[in-house]
Amino acid sequence: SKSIMYSFRRYYLDKLLDEHSDLISGKVLDIGGKKKGKRGAFDINSLNVDVIYLNSDQDTNPDLLASAENIPSGDKEFDTVIMTELLEYVTNFEQVMKEVHRVTKNKTNIIISIPFLHPIHGDYWLDRIRLTEQGIKDLSLKSGFNIKIIEPMGSVGAVIYDILRICFGYAGKSKFKSLFLFILYLSRVLFKFLDKVSKDQKSFINTGYFVVLSK
Asked: Maximum CA pair distance of the chain?
């Protein structure tokens, strides 16, 4: 089932988006978001916001078919920007952040997630980079943003679980693939417990970061 395939990373991302949904308001630009074929359980449509989807993949049915490095929008147009699971794909970080700065109003919230200790994505030909917390800080401050939140997503348990999930998930036509994934799913409570007892280590060992910036 779809739930068996969910990573701990996606679980934490949905949880953090729910916890900070009050930061999403007004006219929202979802860069890299999918109007069609959404992932995760967080439903932005449950909020009283106007969402504009920007994606370079026309199969996702975007409102703006474009690259994040060249946003077809006027200056200071958006109240909130969401860039979840996007920055690992871009070729020019600084240009993307420059464009985000240009199209956002003052006091805008920019909500970002980016992986760290996480396997290469299935679309490996597009997956380019990982950032540490310091790397995120450097990029954000250099681009003229203030840092409100940098939250590590998961710890040791989440990292190990997601590595095993990808390992079995990429097993091709192996007859044991479904069995491995099912056993792993049944073991989630153990990995969640490991995450809890290793929470003091998440500054060094985590699946990635949930970030909120402001202009």
From this structure: 54
d(CA 190, CA 188): 5
Alpha-carbon distances, residue 211 vs 9, 76, 83, 110 (angstroms): 14, 21, 10, 8
Pull the structure tokens for residue 135: 């790397």
Per-residue pLDDT reduced to its tens digit, 138-178 = 999 999 999 999 999 999 999 999 999 998 887 666 678 88
In the chain, the amino acid numbered 125 is: W
- Radius of gyration of the chain, Cα coordinates, nearest whole angstrom: 17
Going from the C-alpha of 70 to that of each of 73, 79, 87, 99, 120, the distances in angstroms are: 9, 18, 14, 7, 25
Non-local CB neighbours of 88 within 8 Å, separated by 6+ positions: 114, 115, 121, 127, 128, 129, 130
Distance CA 185, CA 187 (A): 5
Which 8-state DSSP code applies to residue 46?
A: G
Q: Where are the alpha helices (DSSP H) in the chain?
A: 2-5, 8-19, 93-103, 133-142, 156-169, 177-186, 188-197
Query: What one-character-per-residue DSSP string does 33-77 give?
Result: --SSS--SS--GGGSS-EEEEEES-GGG--SEES-TTS--S-TT-
pTM of this structure: 0.92
Which residue type sits at 185?
Y
Q: Packing angle between helix 156-169 and helix 188-197, nearest 10 degrees?
A: 150
